[in-house]
Amino acid sequence: MAGAVGGAWEPWIGRSERRTDRVGAGLVRRWLATFDRDGCDGNAAPQGLHWCLCLPDAPTAALGEDGHPRRDDDPASFLPPVPLPRRMWASSAVEFIQPIALGAEVERTSSVTAIREKAGASGPLVFVEITHETLSNGLPAVREVQSVVYRGAASSGAGGAGAPPQQPFEPAAWDAHRAITPTETLLFRYSALTFNSHRIHYDLPYAQEAEGYRGLVVHGPLTASLLLDLARRSLGDNAMKRFAFRGVSPAICGEVLHLAMRRRGDAVELAAFAAGGREIMTATAGV
Predict the structure, then answer these.
(1) DSSP conformation class of 83
(2) Which CATH number fits domain 10-286: 3.10.129.10, 3.60.15.10, 3.20.20.70, 3.30.420.310?
């Protein structure tokens, strides 16, 4: 794959697709139920709900072994056919321009803006950067730059969840803290909300044997949504203007997840940790 960024992948740079959706009352109720919330603040959808809108809807027959849509050399496909088997949501930088209204007609345009190859400790990596522009009733609402990473096959026990802790998690260093244990039910509900059929989130033998994880993997955007919810509890709904997160290591279903937040003026630092201090996700936000 050496040199593919300027060669084989070049036709995908600038490629875009457009999807439409509506913020239905049923979707909002299911989101609130998933996060044990009673209701919304005013007429605005909760922050993070945009990850449940304008979703890819590949037919079941078009899915690959991992549950994601199969990658092939179809020149009309939106994402490039990177030949590395594992695909993960690595990071996102989100700008909340204005709240998405309940009942709004939503339009999202997604564009491939960069493809980069890197050499990681476990082998080659390919990062695909996608920019999403979301309109609510015709007005800009959310702009997100998402990074997806493709990786090679994992050996048994890989997956980054067995790394030794840096130090025990200490909640006293943070302004707000919440401990939660993600369950299979929570993972199932979030997969349903986002139409995500990746088997690492529900198929334990596949997650362990094919991808090398110790257990089912908590979705990256689910952890990010839990951090947004922690901020909402302290600052109110739709308080964030910017929110950027990066996955550091996988959170595992059934294991305690510590959510933490501290504020320094208009800047907010958020993070998620495993019980032993292993960092799961880092995030920054602006209010």
Answers:
(1) -
(2) 3.10.129.10
Let me know: does 52 contact 193? Beta carbons within 8 Å. Answer: yes
The candidate with the shortest Cα–Cα distance to 126, out of 88, 82, 90, is 82
For helices 184-194 and 25-34, the axis angle rounded to 10 degrees is 160
Q: In terms of DSSP bridges, do strands 16-22 and 105-120 run parallel, antiparallel, or are they unpaired?
A: antiparallel
Give the Cα separation of 98 and 209 in Å (integer).
43
What pLDDT digit, counting tens, does each position of 77-133 carry? 788 888 888 889 999 999 999 999 999 999 999 999 999 998 877 789 999 999 999
Does residue 48 surpass a pLDDT of 60?
A: yes
Ramachandran assignment for 254, one of left (phi > 0), alpha (psi -120 to 50 degrees), beta (any other)? left
Strand order in the sheet with 139-151: 16-22, 105-120, 123-136, 139-151, 86-96, 242-247, 279-286, 267-274, 257-264, 176-180
Sequence ranges of the domains in the chain: 10-286
Bridge partners for 101 per DSSP: 44
- Strand locations in the chain, DSSP E? 16-22, 86-96, 105-120, 123-136, 139-151, 176-180, 242-247, 257-264, 267-274, 279-286
Beta bridge partners of 271: 260, 282
- Measured CA to CA in angstroms, residue 145 lies from 76, 110, 160, 204 at distances of 22, 9, 24, 31
255 touches 238 (CB < 8 A): no
Confidence of residue 76 (pLDDT cuts 50, 70, 90): low
Residue range 58-67, pLDDT digits in tens: 899 989 899 9
